[in-house]
Design a protein that fits this description.
The protein is an alpha+beta fold. The chain is built from 8 helices and 17 strands. It has helices at residues 50-71, 83-88, 99-114, 124-142, 152-159, 191-206, 301-313, 316-329; strands spanning 11-14, 26-32, 41-47, 95-96, 167-170, 175-178, 210-215, 218-222, 231-236, 246-252, 257-262, 267-270, 274-277, 293-298, 336-342, 350-352, 355-359. The strands form 4 sheets. Strands 2-3-7-8-11-14-15-17-16 form a 9-stranded antiparallel beta sheet. The chain has a 3-stranded antiparallel beta sheet with strand order 1-9-10, with no helix packed on it. Strand 2 and strand 3 (41-47) form a beta hairpin. The radius of gyration is 20 Å and the shape is globular.
């Protein structure tokens, strides 16, 4: 997507040397920033030959390009009806789309309902306003001026055109219709995670055994390294200045996804030095400010992407209740979380380099910080 960065957060992928790997496997790594989603895709894998790795990497690139074209809400692609097409035809006509668009929208609706609306792809009309103000604010900040803030009246007016009552899906005809001209979909909080999961599933189907796909801030591991040791994934400090340093490192010995949402990647500074991030709470229509970052760890990358956004919006107590209920009702898709705040409060959280963090109990066994 060319106009707006939909990356949630950068997670640090630690790829140090592996000893004792199976003799028939060699580790390879490649990156590309030309696969859509306005992000850098990194692919690591153990394969028997470089030729085999290159073929897998070509699949990674082509799959991301494919999903970018489907989920782009800003650009048209010849012969493809995508999210932009659906938005352009709002209030005019149903749009025949690829079944994967319908699948992604239906998954998004499920997570919206489960999270009490904290995650909501129908918020497009409101997010468009914040996007315009953020883009202008970034320019003003570069000129040492404060950005402007939309009025609540403006946001409330746009809110009238948000909600699932505006979305009509006909699976038999494979169409999506927004039944009001002002209704808009914004899938930025799930599209890249959904795509990353689909890429990983395709690689697994094609026979890859040991790999990591990182679509920007969406990390999806496939099994372990070739020697059986877990991949090490670092959760980044939510710093506005220092990039790429980890607060904690998680080594999980199974295929898993790690996605972070935070307020330090896409933001602008408004009046009184207030930071306004891209993470808009559907309940208040304002940027959420409970945490600097929230990381979700679960098997499915699409779920991790959507739920990192949802849990970021919640208070800590709300999140605890939500995660418990989700895990009780989804025993095969349990989630874990890491919360990060700047400073040394609360006192009962762990404190690292000027930040406080806490995590779900079942995650501690994989945490380097908790093994020190």
């Amino acid at each position: 997507m060319k106009k707006i960065l939909i990356i949630c957060l950068t997670l640090v992928l630690l790829t140090g040397c592996t000893t004792g790997a199976k003799d028939t496997y060699t580790k390879y790594e490649s990156r590309s920033s030309e696969v859509g989603f306005d992000t850098l895709v990194t692919f690591l894998a153990y394969t028997k030959t470089e030729k085999e790795f290159d073929a897998y990497f070509e699949t990674v690139k082509q799959e991301f390009i494919h999903y970018n074209s489907l989920f782009d809400r800003y650009n048209d692609y010849e012969g493809i009806n995508n999210i932009k097409t659906i938005n352009d035809q709002a209030g005019i006509a149903p749009v025949k789309v690829d079944p994967e668009i319908i699948e992604m929208i239906e998954i998004a609706k499920e997570y919206s309902e489960l999270s009490n609306g904290y995650f909501d792809i129908t918020l497009g009309a409101v997010l468009d306003i914040w996007h315009e103000y953020r883009e202008e604010g970034i320019v003003l900040n570069s000129e040492d001026e404060y950005g402007k803030v939309p009025t609540m009246d403006m946001l409330k007016e746009a809110e009238q055109y948000t909600g699932w009552q505006f979305v009509e899906i006909d699976k038999e005809a494979s169409t999506v219709y927004l039944n009001h001209t002002r209704a808009k979909l914004d899938v930025g909080a799930i599209a890249k995670g959904y795509a990353t999961e689909k890429v990983a599933l395709r690689l697994e189907k094609d026979g890859i055994e040991y790999a990591v796909v990182s679509g920007g801030g969406n990390v999806r591991t496939i099994n372990t390294k070739a020697d059986g040791t877990p991949w090490a994934i670092g959760v980044e400090k939510p710093s506005l200045i220092v990039k790429g340093e980890s607060l904690d490192i998680f080594s999980i010995p199974t295929s898993t996804s790690i996605v972070t949402s935070g307020d330090y990647q896409r933001y602008y500074i408004g009046p009184d030095d207030v930071r306004y991030s891209h993470l808009i709470d559907p309940h208040t229509l304002m940027p959420a400010t409970n945490f600097q970052s929230v990381t979700i760890i679960t098997h499915d990358s699409g779920a991790a992407d959507a739920l990192s956004t949802a849990v970021y919006m919640m208070s800590y107590d709300e999140a605890q209740e939500f995660i418990k209920k989700f895990n009780d009702t989804h025993p095969d898709q349990k989630i874990d979380a890491v919360w990060v705040l700047e400073g040394d409060e609360p006192k009962d959280w762990q404190h690292v380099d000027g930040y406080s963090l806490t995590m779900t109990e079942t995650l501690k066994q994989y945490s380097k910080l908790n093994k020190q």
